[in-house]
Specification:
heterodimer; A: 282 residues; mainly alpha; Ferritin; B: 144 residues; alpha+beta; Sufe protein. Chain: A; 4-stranded mixed sheet; 4 helices
């Protein structure tokens, strides 16, 4: 089961990266399939938790540098085939649900039209926007740092959600996962257009296997405040070259306010639950 | 940070990133100020590192430094590793502390992995050694 989780994690990311690389009609379909694979991953994770099998989010590196999209699609089809084989022996319900999705996705992926891939050209130009060197460097560093951060947040909140039975707090974690997906997709798309696409690196266990949720939320709020500052700086750096791009980063900056409010809500809820538990025990 | 093609390649596809099953030794470089750290895993034969990997809890700069330095360290003898570490630390002397700290963390983790390996010659269960950085992530003028 643990191997199945790793394989699904890798297939999810490979498909998401293919979505970033595509600039045509394949894009939305690849994003939809990557979302499905992420949901498979969460189901497998739940099974792992129920069965008490130890697991983590370690995985192999995922080679994605291709000239033609069809090369990565073939690789994804191969990965899906291996997952289908690995499903044999897992619970029937899980097997049926995932296997049916895999067969359909494979049948679609085989027929997707090919595309030339420019996501690794390193041209570092976003659409038709002319940025000066300083703004271009700032944007490049921001995208690498923040795309990893968004992937990290997806995995942290996903892990916490999987290990929590609290509906109130899980609703908040799910919103934060969804928000981070939106940010990751936005940044990944920009990276592909600039020719600097890369798979976010593997996350160290200590980051998501959180020992103290209160401390984690407090640190998370500080990190969101720091992220807002990074967005503000970037918006300023690109404003003179591109008001549209500056507007986008102001929008991301303002979204962080919502994330901070959600995390404060989660913190308050968590503290009140713990206090009432302490009183009950006392 | 000066963003050139080489640096972007390391950011797009960091070399030697990830944990290592059955490593012979591990070492940790840590920044106690913010909890960031680098773990280096090595495999050794005849006092030469023939395989090396790293993981980082830190920023992109740390990952780039880890990618570059582990590439350099691969295939080096322990004596050559000492030279690599000395030379890198000398270079860092001329770099602002807040920029030097990420690379220092990687250097210390490599040093710690070698030192752990030497300790394990006498004690197989010797825990991974941790070294803490001296540079600070916080720019001088911002320190209270």
């Amino acid at each position: 089961m643990k191997t199945l989780a790793i394989m699904t994690h890798e297939a999810w990311l490979a498909t998401l990266m293919a979505g970033f690389m595509s600039s045509g009609e394949n894009k939305q379909r690849l994003f939809d399939f990557s979302d499905i694979l992420f949901r498979h991953f969460t189901w497998i994770e739940k099974e792992l938790i129920y069965s008490g099998e130890k697991y983590d989010y370690d995985r192999d590196s995922i080679p994605i540098k291709v000239d033609k999209l069809s090369m990565l699609l073939s690789n994804i089809i191969q990965r899906l085939g291996q997952i289908d084989l690995q499903l044999i022996g897992s619970s029937k319900d899980l097997n049926d649900r995932i296997s049916s999705d895999i067969k359909y996705m494979t049948s679609v992926l085989i027929h997707l039209p090919d595309e030339n891939v420019t996501a690794f050209s390193m041209k570092r130009k976003f659409e038709d926007i002319e940025l000066n060197e300083e703004a271009r460097d700032a944007l490049t560093l921001f995208l690498f740092e923040e795309s990893y951060k968004e992937y990290e947040l997806i995995m942290i909140y996903n892990y916490l959600k999987a290990h929590s039975q609290d509906a109130y707090i899980n609703r908040i974690f799910q919103i934060l996962v969804d928000e981070s997906f939106f940010h990751l997709k936005s940044f990944g798309d920009m990276m592909a257009k600039m020719g600097i696409l890369g798979v976010p690196r593997v996350i160290h266990k200590e980051i998501y296997q959180v020992e103290d949720i209160k401390d984690f939320l407090l640190a998370g709020i500080d990190e969101e405040i720091a992220a807002k500052e990074e967005c503000r700086k970037l918006s300023e750096a690109v404003a003179s070259n591109s008001p549209e791009l500056a507007k986008f980063f102001d929008f991301i900056n303002n979204q962080e306010n919502y994330h901070i409010a959600l995390m404060r809500d989660a913190l308050q809820h968590y503290v009140s639950i713990n206090e009432s538990e302490t009183q009950d025990n006392g | 940070m000066n963003v050139d093609a080489q640096l972007i390649e390391h950011m797009m596809e960091p070399k030697n990133y990830g944990s290592m099953a059955e490593s012979h030794s591990e070492g940790i470089g840590k920044n106690p100020q913010n909890g960031e750290k680098v773990v280096v895993y090595i495999k050794v034969k005849d006092d030469t590192i023939y395989d090396i990997r790293f993981q980082a809890i830190g920023c992109s700069t740390t990952v780039v430094a880890g990618s570059m330095l582990t590439e350099e360290a691969k295939g080096l003898s322990f004596d050559e590793i000492s030279t690599l570490i000395d030379n890198t630390m000398k270079i860092l002397e001329g770099v602002p502390p807040e920029d030097a700290v990420c690379t220092e963390m990687v250097v210390l983790a490599i040093q710690a992995s070698v030192d752990t390996y030497k300790k394990r010659r006498d004690d197989n269960d010797y825990p991974a050694i941790t070294y803490q950085v001296e540079n600070s992530c916080i720019p001088q003028e911002e320190r209270v």
